[in-house]
Design goal:
The chain is an alpha/beta fold. The chain is built from ten helices and 14 strands.
């Protein structure tokens, strides 16, 4: 079942393209990563889904409902973290959560307290005194505390320290175990790799790829550094499935995309003293979509 479905969804700001011809389906129970650099169209898409702005053309459904006609019902059933968290400065954290909870049928005080304790946030202070990280924690609590069917999260870890980021990832995975659906917008590749089932990659307002994260890992480009006992002429360094990025004396940097077992067989023939072959990352694969050679 598609929890989010868009067809030809397009938004122009004058002559500037926010998002164009977006056809997308997010399935129930998955964590879907919406990945792209700042300005790619991620926030525009989220605002269209929430009916905060209206499309130039196309349409969207959320939770089986029309994103425009049924926008109020949709918002009652989801949790949302905006990319730019803005709070009411005259309220304490507790007062702010009470206000936000009043808009939801599923508001749960016990869940709110659990989240407060996990995130170690003082709700008695006025929000004007909160740091950026504290404001982000408060936004996380208000999004999760109402037991929503769907979470729409726009750059949700901005301002969080590494420890809190890991705790947040655990929260997401627990929601998935409970059958919830998550739409996660991010430009942080390790974040998406850690928690997402599938990822949509957007560039210049267009969706350029949808991949399962598990499949992307098999496609990923890796980098390797070799340290030789003595220098070799370049013609003796012809290896299948690799690109030599640089040679500095006895140090060689490679870009690896071929058959790893075959490559290792070939490397055994070289006078290698040491090698560095870090765990594969989505970074280089992602850059295939955003390299300078792309139109």
């Amino acid at each position: 079942m598609a929890v989010i479905k868009t067809s030809g969804l397009t938004k122009y700001y004058g002559k500037i393209c926010g998002i164009q011809d977006l056809d997308l389906e997010v399935n129930k129970g998955e964590i879907f990563g919406f990945l792209g650099p700042n300005g790619a169209g991620k926030t525009t898409t989220i605002r269209l889904l929430l009916d905060l702005i209206h499309p130039t053309k196309g349409h969207a459904q959320v939770l089986g409902l029309d994103s425009h006609r049924d926008s109020l019902e949709i918002r009652r059933r989801l949790g949302y973290i905006p990319g730019d968290v803005v709070l009411y400065d005259g309220m304490t954290g507790s007062e702010y959560l009470a206000l936000m909870g009043s808009f939801h049928k599923g508001h749960n005080g016990r869940r709110q307290k659990e989240l407060q304790e996990q995130l170690e946030l003082d709700l008695s202070r006025q929000t004007r005194a909160y740091s950026k990280g504290m404001k982000q924690k408060l936004a996380i609590i208000q999004a999760f505390m109402n037991d929503p069917e769907l979470l729409i999260l726009d750059e949700p870890t901005l301002g969080l320290d590494p420890l809190m980021q890991h705790l947040f990832y655990d929260l997401l995975l627990n929601e998935k175990k409970r059958g919830k659906t998550v739409f996660l917008s991010s430009h942080i590749i390790p974040e998406v790799e850690r928690v997402c089932d599938r990822v949509g990659i957007v560039r210049n307002g267009q969706l350029v790829a949808i991949e399962r994260v598990a499949d992307l890992k098999h496609k990923k480009v890796r980098r390797m550094e070799l340290f030789l006992s003595h220098e070799l002429p370049p013609e003796e360094l012809k290896l299948e499935g690799v690109e030599i990025l640089g040679i500095k004396g006895k140090q060689i940097e490679l870009r690896v995309s071929g058959n790893i077992p075959r490559l290792l067989e070939q490397l055994c023939q070289l006078p290698i003293e040491d090698m560095v072959f870090p765990e594969a990352s989505l970074e280089d694969t992602f850059m295939e979509f955003y390299g300078e050679e792309q139109p």
